[in-house]
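Service request form, structural biology core

Requester: graduate student, group of Dr. S.
Request type: structure prediction, single chain
Budget code: on file
Notes: please return the result as structure tokens.

Sequence provided:
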Amino acid sequence: MLIKSPPSWQMPEREATPEHVFLNRRHFLAAIAGGAAALGTNLIGGSAFAAGTADPTADLYPAKRNGIYALDRPLTKESDAAAYNNFYEFGSHKRIAMEARKLKVRPWTVSFEGMVEKERQVDIDTLIRAMPIEERLYRMRCVEAWSMAVPWSGFALAELVKYARPLSSAKYLVMQTFHDKKMASGQKQVWYPWPYTEGLTMAEATNELAFMVTGVYGKPLPKQFGAPLRLAAPWKYGFKSVKSIVRFEFTDKRPVTFWEQIQAAEYGFWANVNPKVSHPRWSQASERVLGTTKRVPTLLYNGYGEQVAHMYKDLKGEKLFM
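Core staff response, request fulfilled:
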């Protein structure tokens, strides 16, 4: 008989909120917010569409929760998570939600380029509907030493890799966000190397935890979270989880990523979470939980070591935690 031990970070099923209770709470909150939504976009919902129109994929949410990906802590309140975001395309401050409303998310095309069987472009709604959408509860740890716990909806990045059909010689997956400085005021800052570029090894991209996010809190993804498509790599610092992706390139050359170009001594390619490796300007030993005054100890690989540590055991001379 095969006996599978649960990951160390997984909460016992008996302690998780039953799905019907969670969904009923969502519906209750949605009813309360209905009046505000009728007036147009709002901060918490961050609706990607004008009043009277709907996200073309709205019927996919709330997605069925995958119970394998549970949490050891309460979910961050939606209002807290929606009002505290990094999105440098629209500015360097955290209260970016209002400015991010300028993001136009339809039409939106995603391209697959480089070392693939055939380069192509796909409409975002076609792509989303081709994927098995589910909900996962993930921790998110920012390099700035704050954290949150989020119910992301989307699909495994490994599914997108299969969809793209890369060549076996591809070693890295490069992801880029949009580049439109007329729409995104932050992109007028010439000292940043736009467009925002991030990358993973193919092993990382096909790891079970790597997740393409299309929704959150049981709804399509609001703009300030990186609509309509972003990455969640929960064992890495948050800046690795590129937002509003328009381009996937498969290559055999390791990319120089956005923050690596700006300050490689502080923000490297790997950026795996490690409480024992300090940022050059602050400790990473603990983190502030968003929406509270509480600080909690940071975990190696953000608590996901069982799923990801094997990918790095043979890498020598690499700064894996910067």
